[in-house]
Task: structure prediction
Amino acid sequence: MGKYKIAVLPGDGIGPDVTEQAVKVIHTLAEKYNHEFEMLEGVIGGCAIDKHGDPLPTQTVDLCKSCDSVLLGAVGGPKWDNLPGDKRPEAGLLGIRSKLGLYANLRPAIIYSALKDASPLKSEIIEDGIDIMVVRELTGGMYFGERGRVQTENMGEAAFDTEKYSVLEVERIVRLAFETASKRGKKLMSVDKANVLESSRLWREIVIQISKDYPEIELSHMYVDNAAMQLVRDPKQFDVIVTTNIFGDILSDEASMITGSIGMLPSASLGDGTFGLYEPIHGSAPDIAGQNKANPIATILSVAMMMRYSFGLTKEAEEIENAVVNVLEQGYRTGDIASSGTKVIGTCEMGNLIQSEIMDKKHRNI
Ligand code: NAD
Result:
């Protein structure tokens, strides 16, 4: 039996809809495995602006810091779209990641055999399913480097952004990626642009250096342009991909797209130690908020990642993942992943079914 404290930040739009289902699943695990999960709710994003005039109030940061991990729904919506950049809901999201020192973003892209038809790729390419983990550096590189505007002599105004990585920044993300690979298929692909960029040459040197501590991991390197092509040509060749902030931003979205279902994909943001922030990759989907239409699986699978990466509860993580697969294989779908011959159900019913699978009380609660 373990005792864990979780900050729950439902956010805006469908955030509360999907978080409610994930919280139900956490209660189910507590009951089945005799764990104590204390859940404390806080505000972030638009609802925090409405309540405190700030997308990331100090109380929320303090709450997260007092917990072992954070579960987040989604933020944003048309109501707050016209606010200045640093006052918008999304500023709360960037703020919480940096305030909690979360420098690694883990984004799995999985194609479940029951959902193969949702992928835009040809069936022969994804025949045996796909299971890729993109590990993206989250707090360095071009998104945080020096930027500005200058006047040039002959070409008028110019703008620049700087890609800068320190040895320590690269070391910590690369180590985390090797550790991640050692818990999966033991293959790591480092993606860079070392044929052109000096920052990539340093990146590659460090990857090679650190690989000596992980002789059991098969390491390869790939230029980012090739990686973008290979992801759609032959995604099965990838297990774990590690890359910089900007390359990871683009490649993780591409990897998500090949699964074809935004409502299915979880993510984890990690730093040193076991603390982590877990959230679905989708946004607040204001078009379906509060209508019992949102797919809660991405958020429920984010709980599985929390169990595995923050609490070391591998069995509980697998229990959630298996429950999701079983419910899909029984033909149940929320509207976003429905196809002919499947049974369309709502957010709440999907949560109930996954709960019941975990408790082995099949279909009792639908
Ligand atoms: P979105 O992900 O919210 O929605 C895109 C489309 O996917 C919509 O049609 C939506 O209905 C559908 N969708 C998304 N999640 C779904 C789910 N779980 N189940 C069923 N359908 C789902 O992206 P968007 O429309 O570009 O953005 C809407 C708002 O969300 C904006 O305010 C944006 O800034 C914000 N946003 C927040 C995050 C975040 O909190 N991490 C991420 C992206 C966008």
Remarks:
- The domain at 120-258 is CATH 3.40.718.10 (Isopropylmalate Dehydrogenase).
